């Protein structure tokens, strides 16, 4: 019996050490390999005077009390983030809120003075995924970003294929050609219902404008129109994924992304999300307006509306005052 216990103990320790080593290696090599340099420092502070201090305090209190897990999803095009989505998941209510951040969002940084460097999609190239986490938290009034997930075009293609494609309805002719891309890019979709495989899905996500004279239509509001199309694609992909075994999908697609989420945590998060209904997935865009500054087009986010959006995500319910009740009574009587 003593010999059996001794052999079992040795075998268990060997297995534990081997398994731990494999998990450590997997988690280590899953990290984003573009570190960037320096710390993200915003060059111009937002005008905080129009935000009441108690509003910020309320938001931070809600954040502290919440069990929400926040991610930033980055779709990469070289050293720029072509797609950025802030994803907040509430495991208690099985609620997911997704806020798309326009790539042209105005975000000036100390030491980066070029017009293109003042766009949010330039942060990744200079500071890496960890730097984007910091910048997104700064943009969203210090709401924490727990994890990043980055995916390249080839990774997105593989993930779409792994779930059997994504159904979409295309309302207008898409026709765009870029012979100078590597490899040359050709996007062509007739209007109607499509089940897009990985290759075509990536093309759909990249489409923004038509080649002049091709007969195709561009999104009327440029990148903002493309974001709405991406959100619809994402929602359909989530719906498709929910019909599958979610933890299995996560472990399958995990190898196509780079992230600071450990494999063990990813499986836990996926298990928490099992049973989440599609109506509990809410997709919005960062509030703001697009306009030119110094000859360059930027998207300027609205601080007040961003605060309201975050309060809504974190479940803030404003208490009615006696004045509010009196106004409602007067309105009903009128």
TrEMBL record:
One Pfam family here: LytR_cpsA_psr
Tree of life domain: Bacteria
All copies of domain Cell envelope-related transcriptional attenuator, residue ranges: 80-241
Family to which the UniProt record says this protein belongs: Belongs to the LytR/CpsA/Psr (LCP) family.
Protein name, as recorded: Transcriptional attenuator, LytR family
